[in-house]
């Protein structure tokens, strides 16, 4: 991220923080409006005019006001005006920053309303179902034969009756947004939202792979060991894979701890053939 974009994003986050704190549980509604606004900007030829370095900052701020006054909360309009006045390396960086602010606002509002853990668990449950069901995963991924809105409607049919409105808003964002990563898509977005929610509660998510299911006692012991090592509360994402043969593989952010038999055999093969 170039300096101009980094500075503008940081300024927007700094300016938005006290507004969000004062909004309390209403932050969820503000976050939804930010995501809706970001989608409108991305879906129409608006990114260029709002980020054009050759236009006067106040002209871009005035354009933001004309576009969204009366359509979203005045605080959200003011947020966009401040961002439009800044310098962005690429027009898409404005959209990315709005996405982050929208997600953070929904989660902060849920925290203020005492429902953040519920929202996290609901998005996490959707993530698990998408990961486990290839048919659903493929149906929600971008494809020429389906439009983005058709995929959103499918997600709503699948999940809206089972999760809260804030969680569903986040799931819809996960379906709409195409991340700038080589391998991403809906599972990546769902995981990102879940990790942000966990971080707000001073927790990390650990992916744990074993050959057979862990007992409740083993889960508790592993959670305690990881918490002592990492300095955070730990939430386990348990997966069973008979191919690991035995032992356990734990992945937390960029940290991988692999004591599986499969890993040991692979190391032995490498040593013998190296």
UniProtKB/TrEMBL annotation:
- Asked whether the keyword Transport is assigned, the reply is yes
Keywords from the UniProt entry: ATP synthesis, Cell membrane, CF(1), Hydrogen ion transport, Ion transport, Membrane, Transport
Entry GO CC: plasma membrane; proton-transporting ATP synthase complex
Q: State a single Gene Ontology molecular function.
A: proton-transporting ATP synthase activity, rotational mechanism
Spell out the subcellular localization from the entry.
Cell membrane; Membrane
Q: Where is the signal peptide?
A: none
Membrane association type: Peripheral membrane protein
Q: Which InterPro entries match?
A: ATPase_OSCP/dsu (IPR000711)
Source species, domain of life = Bacteria
Q: Which family does it belong to?
A: Belongs to the ATPase delta chain family.
Q: What does this protein do?
A: This protein is part of the stalk that links CF(0) to CF(1). It either transmits conformational changes from CF(0) to CF(1) or is implicated in proton conduction.
In Swiss-Prot or TrEMBL terms, this protein is called ATP synthase subunit delta
Q: Which organism is it from?
A: Actinomyces succiniciruminis
